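Predict structure. Chain length: 208.
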Amino acid sequence: DLPDLAQLLTRLAWGLGSLHQPEKARGIVNEALHITLRDYGAAHPLYADALKEASSVALQLGQRAEALALMTQALQIEQAAYGAAHPILAVSTTRLGWAQSQAGQHDAAITTLQHAIAMEERFEQPNWKNVASAYNAIGDAEISRGNYDAARAALEAALSRGSRIKSDIRLPLPPARHSRELLAPAPGTCHRSARFDRPPERARNPAR
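Prediction complete.
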């Protein structure tokens, strides 16, 4: 089936966000929210998709409290729609943890991200990119808390999980402070690096 207008607008907003054009994405995602709410209602997963994209746009615009509220609402919709265990929920939980961290709720973020990792590890085929993203976000939160040993361990775990992905992984988070120092190679080891630039990607929605 061809996607409808609301889905196309949501994807367009995602594309503009990827191009670091959040001002343009804002108007488009707001229109997607309006159309999706009108056509599907506030409990539909497609409305959650639009909310998640609106959250990403808000983060890029520095509106962290709004981003967290939007992501929280989106996850609640998905939990009601999919139940307690679903790959989409694991990815959205990682995105919620990222939003919490950006809003300064680092303790809550780490708990949320650990939950996302636990969800993935229960699946027969974990989404290793999401697991890596969650560990990466934990590292960022630990840096913000000043726990540099814990941050290094989390970032190394992110790189380890990322190595399980066949394609070249680009972990979707912004540069962590002191990341070069934290990921400096230990004696006798090879140096590896990762790129951090976007919130965790959406899972593919089977409702589409």
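Summary: Residues 166-199, 204-208 have pLDDT under 50 and may be disordered.
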